[in-house]
Amino acid sequence: MKFKHLDMDSLSNDQIVDSKLIISKYMDYVLENDGYPKSVYKFCKNVEIEEKDFYSFFSSLESLDKGIWTAFYETTIDVMYKNDEYLSFSNREKMLTFFFTFFELLTLNRSYVLFALKRYDVPFENLKQLKGLRRHVKKFASELIKEGNDEKQFKIIKNSETVYSEGAWLQFLFLLKFWQEDESIAFEKTDIAIEKSVNTIFDLFDNTPLTNVLDFGKFLWKEKMNWN
What we know:
Layout: H1 19-33, H2 40-47, H3 51-54, H4 61-81, H5 91-108, H6 110-117, H7 123-127, H8 131-150, H9 161-181, H10 188-207, H11 213-227
Helix pairs in contact: 4-5, 4-8, 5-10, 8-9, 9-10, 9-11, 10-11
């Protein structure tokens, strides 16, 4: 799917060059050519934009790869805040809303996302494009944990923002892998996995404070069999 679906708005033919237009053209290029451009020059020449316009928004093709995931995140946040009821949601509901919205966005752009996540034979190399997204997701989760801690009277029952923000990232990676392999109609199994994982983890927040992110990871994978 084209990036224009990501923000739910169509791109007009006379639209000036901006980051969204560049991302849209880049995603189309990758899918239509079954591969990535070799240079900024070749990409810009192929899609008929000026190099100077490209460099106004991205420093390299690698930064564009990362920028696509950041755009997914930013659009997710924009969509959530357009819901007038969002601010009144509990932290659990906010996290559910985030994951549901984010993966709906990925589904709209599934062809590109699957291609991008299988770009290299080494899985670690494919995760490098998620570097900026990781920072955003951890910040989002950290803010939710901070809000929850502010409501708790005793320090001993407060959760570690560091541990749980990193845990939220592990949860995202688990859901991303689940979504990649999901063959259910309308990816309904992914929706179930999101709901069950978020609810299980918030129950964990409330009842079992963790001191090590490794414990969080072990818990997440232990519960995996119950979510399938």
